[in-house]
Amino acid sequence: MSSLAGPKNKPGRNAAESHRQESVQLLIFNFLLILTLLTIWLFKHRRVRFLHETGGAMFYGLIMGLILRYTIPSPDPESSIVHRCEDVTSNPGILLLNVTDRLYEYEYKREIAKHNMNNRQGNEILRKVTFDSEIFFNVLLPPIIFYAGYSLKKRQFFRNLGSILTYAFVGTAISCIVIGGIMYGFVRAMISLGQINRHDFYFTDCLFFGALISATDPVTVLAIFHELNVDMQLYTLLFGESVLNDAVAIVLTYSISIYSPKDNPDTFDAAAFFKSVGNFAWIFAGSFAMGSAYGIVTALISKFTKLSEFPMLETGIFFLLSWSTFLSAEASDLTGIVAVLFCGITQAHYTYNNLSDEAKLRTKQLFEFMNFMAENFIFCYMGVALFTYQNHIFNALFIFGAFIAIFVARACNIYPLSFLLNLRRRRKIPWNFQHMMMFAGLRGAIAFALAIRDTDSKPKQMMFTTTLLIVFFTVWVFGGGTTQMLTWLHIRVGVNPDDELNQESVFVSSGGEQQISSTKAESAWLFRIWYNFDHKYLKPALTHSGPPLTTTLPAWCGPVARLLTSPQAYQDHRKEDDTDYIISNDELSVYYEDKAVPASSSSEEPGKQSPNQEQPGTKDIFHEG
For 133-488, CATH number? Predict the structure, then answer.
C-alpha cells in the first residue's frame, strides 16, 4: 500500500497540544455559561421579558463564534500538504496503513471541501470547538427530557390527555408531511435553477427535514408562562404537546431515515413504507415499555428496602437507574430519549412517593439543575456553531421555503385539530389559545440535535444550516414577543392553578347542591379506565398509598396481595397526591386512599362512612378540559 506520511511531531507533544486545546475549548464554554447565568440574574432582577435567557445564551455564543472565526492565526503552509494514497478508492470509517512496517490507524472524520484544504490545520481550534453530535444525544439531551417527564403536572396533563396525544402524534405527522411536501416543491425549483444536482435531494430527504424541524421546543414561552401564571389549560396543552412531540419527532426521523425503496428514492415503495411504519411503532412502544419498566423497578426497590435511611444512597440509586434507562434503550436499538421520558413520568408517579423527604428534594434539585445547565449549554453552542461549523451551506431559496413551510405546517396542525377536538370537549379550546399555540411553535434543542447528528452529505449540511437559522429566528422573535402576544390575545395571567383545578372539578348549582361538571360523554374514557386500574392495583403495589391489595385483588391472590401491600396502606391518613374525585352513583364522594367520604355530609369525619352508602363506582370527573 502507498505510504502516508506519519506525524512529524512526537506523540507526547501532540497529546499535550490536544489536551491544551480541549482545555481552551471547555474554558470558552465555561465562561459563556458564567456570563449567561449573570445575564439571567440581571433579566430576572430587572424583569426583562423582550429577550429570554435562551436568546441571551445564543447571542453570547454568536459573539464568541464570531471572535473564534476571525481571530484564528493563519495556517502553516507546510502542514497543509495532502498526501495521496492511490490504492484507497473509498471512504472507510477506519483506515489501517502500513508505513515502513509500522501499522497506523486513521479514523474518518468528514469530507473537507476544496476551499478548506489549505485552512485545515489553521482551523484546528474551530474543529475542536465543534462537538461530536453524540455528545448532545448521549449527555445533554437525556437530563432535559427526563426532567420534562419528572416535573410533569400529572393532574392537568391527564385531564387533557386526549388533546395532547392528538397534537403530539397526529399533529407532528401532519407537520412532517406538509413541510416535506412544500420543501420538495422548493427543491424542484432549485434543481430547475441549477443550484443543486437532481441526485442530491430526494423526497425522503424533504420528509426527513420535515420530521426533525417538527420538533417544537417552546422552553422560552413556557418559562414566561410559568412566571406570569398563565391560564393552566393553555400551559398544559402547550407543555404536553412539546414533551411528547419531541419523542415522536425523534422516532419519526429515524423511521424515515431507514426508508429505502428498491428503485428510485422518489418513488413510493409500499413494502418499505410499511416497514418504516412498523419500525416507528416498535421503537416507540419498546422505548415506552423499557422506560416504564425501569421506573417500576426503581419504585419497588425504594418501597421494599431501607434506602430511605440513607438519602445519599437513595438519590444515587435513583439517578443511576434513570440513566440506565437511556443506555439500555440505546443498547437495544431503541430510542433512549423516548425511554427516559416515560421513565421520568413513571418515577414521578410512583417512585417519588416512596422517597424520603430529603431524597425528594435532592432529586428535584438535581434534575432541575442538570436540565438548566444542559439547555443553556446547547443554546450557547448554537450561537458558536453558526460561525465555527465549517461545512455550512447557505441556500436562500431553501431557507425561505423552510420558513414558509413551518408556518403553514403549524397552522395545518393547530387549527384543524383544535376544531375536531372542540366537537367533543366540554371546555373548548378558544381562538386566542389556538393563536397562542400557533405563535409558540418555537424550534430549539431537539431540532438542533437531530440536525447536527448527521451532516455528512450536502443535503444534511443544508438542513443543519437552515435549522440553525430557524432556531435563532423563532427564539429571538417569537420568544421575545410572548408577553406582548399574551396581552394582545387577552389571555389570562396571574391564575392560581389550585383554584382553577377546584373550580373545574366541582361547581355549586342554583339549588345549593354540589354536582359534577362533566357528563359521561364528556369524560376522558381512556383515562377513566387507566385511573381505576392504577388506583386499585398499581399504586398499592408500587407505593405506600392507595387501598390495600387485599381488598382489591381476588381472594386467590391473597399471598401476593399481602406481600406487595405496604403496612402504611392500612393506616387512615390523607395524602394530597392520592386525593381524587369519584362519582358514587348520584352523589359526589371524595376518595382519600381507601376511604370514601360523601361530599354532601360535611359534618362527618373523613374516616366515618354512612352505613347505607354504596361503594364508589368507576365514573370519575377527569375529562377533556
Answer: 1.20.1530.20
